[in-house]
Amino acid sequence: MTRGKIILLNGVSSSGKSSLAKAIVKRLPDHFHYSIDDFDMVIERMEDRENQRLIPVSTEYYFHRTIRMFSDSGINLVVDQILHNDDTLRDCLSTLEGYPVYFVGVHCPQNELEKREMERGDRSLGLSKKQLKYVHQQNEAYDIEVNTALENMDTSADKIVKTYLNAGDLKGWHSY
Ligand SMILES: Nc1ncnc2c1ncn2[C@@H]1O[C@H](COP(=O)(O)OP(=O)(O)OP(=O)(O)O)[C@@H](O)[C@H]1O
């Protein structure tokens, strides 16, 4: 079976990954949006945090492996994830090594991120600032990069979809 393709959006919290992923799947109806946030909710439901009855393995461990399983079943995904530390980055790379990944860097300047954090109110203030110290600083070899503060969502989504479709068959992802 041909592996499903994976459009992998990487950017700090509030950079606009989820909004962008939704705009991309509207343009690519044979792709599904798969988010670390949704997966986190599954783990949260399983855990009994009040009594410290916790899943002793990182959420990302399962998330990355299920991405691989979907791809093995021929399902195309648009994934939003924050590769925010060495463990997450290494696990993502090693799990998806050789898979058809189209790697998208989602940028947004800090002042705009802080504004969005204030407005949305469901993320701790300063989270994106902390993540910016790592994310996009690891020589990530993106296939394309967008800045959600400089261009509107439709422009970014159109650009990503156009270059993705032009790229045709994707080479297997490899460490960068
Ligand atoms: N291009 C944009 N212009 C203005 N606001 C935006 C833009 N993109 C997203 N936002 C707003 O920023 C907030 C965060 O967006 P979104 O949930 O898409 O980001 P995210 O990167 O997925 O965040 P997280 O990783 O925290 O889930 C939302 O309130 C959204 O409406």
From TrEMBL:
<dbReference type="Pfam" id="PF07931">
    <property type="entry name" value="CPT"/>
</dbReference>
<dbReference type="InterPro" id="IPR027417">
    <property type="entry name" value="P-loop_NTPase"/>
</dbReference>
<protein>
    <submittedName>
        <fullName>AAA family ATPase</fullName>
    </submittedName>
</protein>
<dbReference type="InterPro" id="IPR012853">
    <property type="entry name" value="CPT"/>
</dbReference>
